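Thread: quick sanity check before group meeting

JM: Hey all, I'm pulling together slides for Thursday and realized we never actually wrote out the predicted structure for the chain we discussed last week. Dropping the sequence here so it's in one place. If anyone has concerns about the input, flag it before I start.
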Amino acid sequence: MFVNLGFGDKGPDNGPSELNHVLVPQFGIQGPANSAPFSSAVCLQNVAVPKEAPAVAGSAATIQLVEIGLDGVARYSVS
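JM (edit): ok, ran it. Output follows.
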């Protein structure tokens, strides 16, 4: 899994043009198994905005979660 951050609203669908700030370095989780699906909840503690990120009060920001599934296909989620 990867967790990235992007700023601005000039990209596709009024989102950022790049999601190039790493919020959490690449990590993996144990599971799921085909016989026991994952609960779809992961808690990440102490996630901070990188010091080099252009964050100021009122900034438009988007968080992107990238998951590599059991089948090797990347799944993207943004909020």
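AS: nice. The chain is about 0% helix and 30% strand. The mean pLDDT is 85.
JM: adding both to the slides.
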